[in-house]
Amino acid sequence: MMSASIPLLIAVADYGHTAALKQGLAPIRGISAEFVDVKPIVAAYRRMVRSLEFDVCEMAAGTYMIAREAGLPVTALPVFTYRRFHHSGFVCRADAGIRTPKDLEGKKAGVRAWSVSTGIWTRGILQNEYGVDLSKITWVVDDEEHVQSLRLPPYVLQAPAGRSLAAMMAAGEIQAAFTDNAGIGRAGPPQENWKTGAAPATPYVDLFADAQKLEADWFQHTRIYPVHGLIAVRDALLEQHPWLAQALFEAFDESRTRYLEQLEAGQKVSEHDDYYRRMTAIVGDPLPYGLEANRPAIEAMIRYCRQQGLLNGSPAAEDLFV
């Protein structure tokens, strides 16, 4: 029997599709929700993985799979909080001689951490679509992995102490890197007041100059709409309250539905509104929830994690979600 007003500590970022949930306009049946504001939300992933700090927490899809295999007692809902394509966001020095993806072999490339979602997706595309041998690239990281027990491949190296990827890229010590939070666009690990969006000292060249067209074409032939964030729930709560997963899903889905209606009406809700309207023209539903609608992306993430040494097993998609 459902207990009344169970308190839950929930860490989820502010998005257009979570606004109604966090404002109480899409209440969670039987739950008294306390939303914790963690900025950047990446810091909440780390806190959840290392100390199981929250009852319900947004988490990167790759981080969730790695942590679950390592024994973290959480299970995901098929609620995906953030997603984007990944031919964009990877740049090279103009003097590095990198003209095609295969030219990355023999070079050094920077990524914040080996398990960062952007890195997993882009490396998967490089390997599976362009035949790049990831082991022939030296990948330089300047942050810790969220899951501290993760063993990295021998071609992944830690940046020298005190050296950031941004500084190494500017000096030519690495020849390519991810932008924004995944690489040279931020300072330090994901802590409160994380400084992001730092402009590079030198203009760099996009690996894929026609990224948006390539992304749309890739979706058409793979049906993969890459997932980043999902919602993880402590297993103890799911076992104690068998109705909880459905109640959470319904509330997240109601919040999502409200947002999609606002998008269709042309309302301004968040800074991502125009992005999701553009995605609608490519993928249809820009924020699909549920397992089947996201199966191509989930199975691709599992495959890429296996290929990149992030997972030992190959779990079925059904085994990862409530």
CATH class of the largest domain, named Alpha Beta
Sheet with the most strands: spatial strand order: 8-7-6-9-5-12
Shape: globular
Q: List the domain count as a whole number.
A: 2
Mean pLDDT: 93
- Counting helices, strands and paired strands, the structural category is alpha/beta
CATH architecture of the largest domain: 3-Layer(aba) Sandwich
Percent helix range? 25-40%
Q: CATH fold name of the largest domain, please?
A: D-Maltodextrin-Binding Protein, domain 2
Report the strand count. 13
Number of helices: 11
Whole-angstrom Rg: 20 Å
Distance between the termini: 19 Å
In short:
The chain has 322 residues and is an alpha/beta fold.
Overview of the structural elements:
The protein folds into two domains: 6-85 and 225-320, 3-Layer(aba) Sandwich (D-Maltodextrin-Binding Protein, domain 2), CATH 3.40.190; 90-221, 3-Layer(aba) Sandwich (D-Maltodextrin-Binding Protein, domain 2), CATH 3.40.190. The model has no long low-confidence stretch (mean pLDDT 93). The strands form three sheets. A six-stranded mixed sheet has the order 8-7-6-9-5-12, with helices on one face. It has 322 residues and is α/β, with parallel strands linked by helices. The chain has helices at 19-22, 41-51, 61-69, 117-130, 165-171, 211-222, 235-240, 244-264, 273-283, 295-307, 317-320, and strands spanning 6-11, 31-36, 56-60, 74-83, 90-92, 108-110, 138-141, 156-158, 176-178, 186-187, 195-196, 205-206, 227-234. α3 (61-69) packs across α10 (295-307) and α4 (117-130) crosses α10. It is globular. The longest helix has 21 residues, at 244-264. The chain contains eleven helices and 13 strands.
